[in-house]
Structures are given as structure tokens and as C-alpha cells.
Amino acid sequence: MHRRTRVTIAIVVVVLLLLAGAIYLRKKAPPEAARLLPESDGIVYFNLRPLRSATHFDQHPVSHDPAYQQFIDQTGIQVERDLDEVAFALHRMPDPNGPNGPVAFSEVFVGHFDGRRLSTYLAGAAKSTETYAGHDIYNIPSDGRTVRVTLLGYDMIAASNTPTEEQIHSILDRHRTAALPFSGSSLLAAHYSDVPLLSVAWGVGQIGLPLGDSAGSMQIMGMSLPLTFDATFIASISWAGKTRLRVEEITPTDVAAKTSADSIGNILNFARAAEDGAAPGMADADTKALLDSAEIEHHKNRAVLTATIPTGLLRKLVNAPVNFQGASGSNPQPVSSGGNKN
């Protein structure tokens, strides 16, 4: 074999190995929409493609309020039909009584949209614009806040309602290095490896961020939850022949994790007893199947809840009537719920 031939083969082999390594790292990396998010206290991600295929929620009639219908008419965007992925970053606010409340948000949306119509709509709604990293940022007033929106590419936009432009600038900075599989926030770096493979929806962060009160307890619909305020949660919905829900609580101590596991176990037992004792015709087979499949385990400083979501219950949840609400005033809020197609 000629020396030149050996060198050529060696180069080809090295290139193929590098390509295979890059593909492997990209598959192990978080979704791009999540990697673009700025530093935050929590992240929530949804991949709507498999959910749409499984439940056909885009074919379910949706009630639109006038502001949202105006958004549809001007942009051609229907979120339930056109949105494919969405990633939210939650930012804890130092003043929970300020315009943002306790939490501000940064978002990245991926979908199939008409970019020119969307740009025209954003320009008309914006009070001012800014150019950063070659992208126009539309500053749109909304309920005492400023929603900053920018078109990232042919199928992606970003938005943020944080008090300063730092977060939207961070998204644009990350977008320039989006091809690198190691990019992303420190929260992703610390906990994305805990998200189960094939998860179509997941969240990481502190649940106390949106649900805690000034006393440090968890509140949902007026009920206190037996959860540690400063615990970190990794919640996910994955598909592997069936829809699996997994919620992992990482607490500061082993004792706190055991307390949470015991309390949640008691709640599950109470719910199962209530479902079993329901009057004939009042019990729901899907809810009973969900409760019967639920299990809670304790491992050192972690409490893990797992359950199987019946397909029927999933369809009921996504096909429930929805009324999309616009923001008050002349500028409807759906400007931060779409993507771009140039």
C-alpha cells in the first residue's frame, strides 16, 4: 500500500471518529431550545411533537379570546398546531410584589411559522427596538413589564420579561455557539444527566420558586404540600411503550427526603382509598390506574415518585377545552408564544 494511500485512509478514519463522537455528544446533550436559555433557578421543557402525534390535540377545537384571535389573524400562528418545542427559564425575583411577581420568565420557542408576518406584528406591537448580535429585539410593554422578543432563526424565537435585557442578550450569545453540545446553563450541567432518556417533557429546579409562600411552605390551590422548600426537583414524562411520570426530589438531608417520601406515600394511600370508596359511576378508571401504578421510594437524600399515565387520561388532559388569554391593553401576550420562518 502506498504511503499516500495510508495517510488518506488514516485521515478518513480520524474524520469519521470525530463525526461519530460529535453525533454521540449531540444526542447526549440537552435539546437546543433548553441549551439557549440563560442562567436561571428552574427550567421546564416540552417536546410537543410526540404528544401531538399521540393525542391529536391540534385537531381539538380551541376557544380563542379576541386578543389571541387578533394575533392569529395577523401572524397566521396557531400555537396548538404550529409549536413543536418550548423551553422556559424561571428567574426568582428579589421583590415578589414587583411587576413580575415572584418569578420572571425567559423562553425559547421552536415551530413552523411565517417569519415575515410575525416580524411585522412584533414591529407594530413594540414600543422600541434594539439591535444586538445582528438580531432585532422588540421591546413590547405588557402590564408594567417589558417583554423582549427576538427572532433567532427560520424556526425559532426567544422572549424574556425580566427587568433587564441581560437574559435576552445571553440567549443570543448562546445561539452563536449552539452547535457546541457542552453549551448551556449551570443548572443543565448539574442536573440534565438525571433526566431519563426519551423524556418528552421535563423540568429541573426548585419547586418552591413558583409555589412557595413567604412562610416557606408549598401551596397549590390553598393546600400545603409535604415538600421541602429548598429541595431541587427533576420531573419528567417519558415514553417507552407507555407514558411514565417520574418526579425526583433532592433534599438537603436524608431525613428530609424520608419525611417527604413518607408524607407523599400517605397522600397516595388516602387518594387510593377515596377512589376505591367512590360511589358507582363516580370513579374514574384512568385516575384509579394512575394511582394504582404510583410508587414512592427513598434513597438517601432523594425521594422518587414514579407512575404510569394511562393514554385515556393523557387524552383527557390535552383535549380539555382551553381559552387562550391575551394580555390586557392593545398588545396581546401571544407574541412570546411562537417561532419564525424567514
Describe the SSE topology.
Elements: H1 3-28, H2 32-35, E1 42-47, H3 48-55, E2 63-64, H4 66-75, H5 79-82, E3 83-92, E4 103-111, H6 115-125, E5 128-132, E6 135-142, E7 145-153, E8 156-160, H7 166-175, H8 186-191, E9 199-205, H9 208-211, E10 218-220, E11 223-225, E12 232-239, E13 243-250, H10 254-276, H11 285-293, E14 295-299, E15 302-309, H12 311-318, E16 323-324
Parallel strand pairs: 2-16
Antiparallel strand pairs: 1-3, 1-9, 3-4, 4-8, 5-6, 6-7, 7-8, 9-12, 10-11, 12-13, 13-15, 14-15
What does this structure look like?
The protein has helices at 3-28, 32-35, 48-55, 66-75, 79-82, 115-125, 166-175, 186-191, 208-211, 254-276, 285-293, 311-318; strands spanning 42-47, 63-64, 83-92, 103-111, 128-132, 135-142, 145-153, 156-160, 199-205, 218-220, 223-225, 232-239, 243-250, 295-299, 302-309, 323-324. With 342 residues, it is an alpha+beta fold. The protein has one domain (30-336). The strands form 3 sheets. Strands 5-6-7-8-4-3-1-9-12-13-15-14 form a 12-stranded antiparallel β-sheet, with helices on both faces. Strand 14 (295-299) and strand 15 form a beta hairpin. It is globular, with a radius of gyration of 23 Å. The protein starts with a helix and ends in an 18-residue tail after the last strand. Residues 22-26 and 322-342 have low confidence and may be disordered.
